[in-house]
Design goal:
Length: 229
């Protein structure tokens, strides 16, 4: 039973991560920081504070922790890069997001084999063959670049994978305890009421007594993955 649960949880996690990577509408990553550089990196008004918080909660190709201005007034970003995985006209390409140097305006070009990429509003574009800079039309849409199929490990996907790994560890330990004990110990005593709540308040009433066990993994998976939303 537990093996079937982990299989369902694993595939549900992979599906959710893939769907999130493709469906998430990304907005500017560090563009907001560039806008406030003229004020020394300060965020003063309530509207600016709310916008700054909302901006940094959005998905991105970097895991950005915080920013600050050094003594020379240069804006510094603290965080770590994530893998960029795209399917381009030259096939599958892989590189780290640090190669964009926090640029989100299409100014920095990244060469990967014979393909050239840039990042614009947190979307990866491949430049046409021979292009050395991205050009825009009157509506600021790229005219010599096209979107690529993006399979990157973004901040949201990283969070999903991290929570999924923690779920496998803690629920795996809980399953082992049930094999030898009637009542779990340690952190398992915290998890058991949550599992029972999902079983008694969600799975049984909606699926029925005969089939709810088959879908317990899916329900528990969705409940705990919501922690990353």
């Amino acid at each position: 039973m537990y093996r079937a649960y982990f299989k369902i949880a694993f595939f549900a996690l992979i599906f959710t991560a893939f769907a999130t990577a493709q469906a998430q509408e990304h907005n500017g990553d560090y563009a907001f920081d560039d806008e406030i550089e003229s004020d020394g990196g300060k965020v003063n008004t309530k509207e600016e504070i709310d916008s700054y918080i909302d901006h940094h909660l959005k998905d991105s190709h970097d895991f950005h922790l915080f920013s600050y201005s050094d003594d020379a007034g240069v804006r510094k970003h603290v965080g770590f890069s994530l893998p960029v995985i795209v399917w381009s006209s030259e096939g599958l390409k892989f590189f780290m997001s640090s190669k964009f140097h926090h640029d989100d305006d299409g100014k920095v070009l990244v060469k990967a084999g014979d393909a050239t990429f840039t990042k614009l509003h947190s979307k990866i574009y491949e430049l046409d063959s021979g292009a050395t800079a991205i050009n825009f039309d009157a509506d600021h849409h790229p005219t010599n670049a096209h979107r690529v199929f993006d399979m990157s490990i973004t901040k949201s996907v990283f969070g999903l994978l991290l929570i999924g790994l923690l779920m496998l560890l803690v629920f795996g330990a809980l399953a082992k305890q049930y094999k030898t004990k009637k009542i779990p110990t340690g952190f398992g005593r915290v998890l058991e009421p949550l599992v029972l709540y999902v079983r008694d308040e969600i799975a049984r009433p909606n699926i029925g007594e005969t089939k709810y066990r088959k879908f317990m993994g899916v329900f528990i998976n969705r409940v705990f993955l919501n922690l990353d939303q």
